[in-house]
Amino acid sequence: MPVSHLTGPYRSLKLNSSAEFRVLFNVAGLYYIVRIYNILASQLFKEALLLTRIYRKSIYMVSFAALLWGLVACAVNPVTGKHQLMLLTEQGEVDLGAQTDQSIVQQYGLYADGGLQSYLPSVGMPIARISHRPDLAWKFKVMDSPVVNAFAAPGGYIYVTRGLLASVNNEAELAGILGHEIGHVTARHSASQYSNMMLANVGLGVGKTLLGNYGAALGPLMDAGTGLLFLKFSRDNEREADSLGVEYASRAGYDAARLADFFDSLQQMKTLGQTGSASQLPEFFSTHPNPVNRQKTVRSMATEWQKRLSNQAFRVNQDQYLERIDGLVYGDDPRKGFREDNHYYWPELGVQFLLPQSWLFEREGTQIQILHPDKRGLVMIGVERGGNIEQISSRFVSSLQGKVLDSQDSTVDGMPSKELLVLMIDGGKRLLLLSRYFLKNNQVFMFHALCAEKEFAAIRTELSLPAASFSLIKDPQKLNPRRQRIHVQAVSQSMTLQNALQAFGVNAQDWDRIAWLNAMQLKDMLAPGQKIKLLK
């Protein structure tokens, strides 16, 4: 494996193995924490949050450099057959996708339903096998997120959220969405964006300067969210993916016009307001810009393909699909964490802690950031699975350009704990980092609280509050919060959707959302035996 280098305080660190890459992921973090603090005084919290994402993806800086060791000037696009600038070989694309997959699964988690995880590839694989890149090792996964989105990573990784599955109303609709995402991969849209971004950041000297400066070059890429996964496609990309999605779904025997129904639902979703989701995954249109006349174009293309495949039947499979999603968790899952006043409960992990009054709070997957209202301090909270406190804290501290001022071991609710106070000097700034580690069931909870040395005495109580209040949840109601789920119910006779909701005892405040979930209006008529989605 080629030798790689980091920028910043790690510019002289040589990495020669994947094990060292993993070490880097854990020890390089504080450099970026310091950079976060430096922008707090002049930037918004959201901008500080973007840099925290680099901390969680430090390992990519090394991996990308390894992939780019053998740059490729151009390649033939599998869809168009034309030459295009491409800095990734196909194997490099596959490797990049695998790394992205590891990060996104760790960060956001898979939906814990084996039936749905098996069902998705049963729909997607037949479509992928008739695509322009049938030999890729395609993977289809349901992510445990309430937002409505689907996305693709290079190399054949396709994801849909449970929020998207809840909004879809038949298998043909899902097939069109999967075909669309497969189209992004077959046309190498993400790989092409990666190549363009690298050139835009490092210029024509990329081959000479990349290994020494790729950390800075990849900054905008990391700021996009989770690397390539959440880059915003162009409208031309979207039109091509729509075209490919219609083609693939039609050839697989689905009524691809139903893809347009999904886009209709997405536009109508805006009238429902924000979902309040804490997952921080982007919604569909934020990563898939909406081309002009999209629905009309999709329906027209579907009609043309159905004419070309006139001897083929085109299925919708509405009832079969609704049976598959019956019982699907809907909305934010409180088991993954919820707030009550200044208390934060994390039922899935069985822990709780307090939040400083009026501090800004953000959660992204398993990562939490808390910012002082006047930006005088920052607390970052995360979880690392595997390892132990001594390994993780020692590995972290050994690579810091700082001085350990104090170290204390203790036990909290039966959990081993370590607290470290570290002085760091960054240019003319003197910063104090108060780190606290807790070990619970082979999981290490990490609290990193950072502020200027001169501010520490004044805000130490607030800064240390989350870690100081960390404990096990003992209230059964907090450990087992109720989750809202999709419930599929058939009507016994012809009636309007509104009459059906009244008959089923649905609260009137939920009518509009349930109508949207079913892609219907309240005045629409239901046939005897027709199945609809309810929320329970």
Please outline what is shown here.
By secondary structure, the protein is of the alpha+beta class. The protein contains 21 helices and 20 strands. Mean pLDDT is 79; it is low at 1-73, 197-230 and 274-282.
Folded structure, characterized:
With 536 residues, the chain is α+β, with helices and mostly antiparallel strands. 43% of the residues lie in helices and 21% in strands. The chain has a 7-stranded antiparallel beta sheet, sandwiched between helices. A hairpin with a 2-residue loop joins strand 9 (360-364) and strand 10. Helix 1 packs antiparallel against helix 4 (58-67) and helix 8 (171-186) crosses helix 13. The longest helix is centred in the N-terminal third of the chain and has 19 residues, at 90-108. The protein starts with 17 loop residues before the first helix and ends with a strand.
Features:
43% helix; single chain; 536 residues; disordered N terminus; alpha+beta; 20 strands
Query: Could you list the spans in which at least 5 consecutive residues all have pLDDT below 50?
Result: 1-73, 197-230, 274-282
User: Number of DSSP helices?
Assistant: 21
Largest sheet: 7 strands, antiparallel
What is the straight-line distance between the termini? Answer: 53 Å
* Proportion of residues in β-strands: 15-25%
Question: Taking Cα atoms only, what radius of gyration do you get, to the nearest Å?
Answer: 25 Å
Residues in helices, as a percent range:
40-55%
What coarse outline follows from CA principal-axis ratios? globular
Q: Strands of the largest sheet, in order across it?
A: 9-10-11-15-14-13-12
Question: What is the overall pLDDT average?
Answer: 79
Structural class, by secondary structure, is: alpha+beta
Q: What's the total number of strands?
A: 20
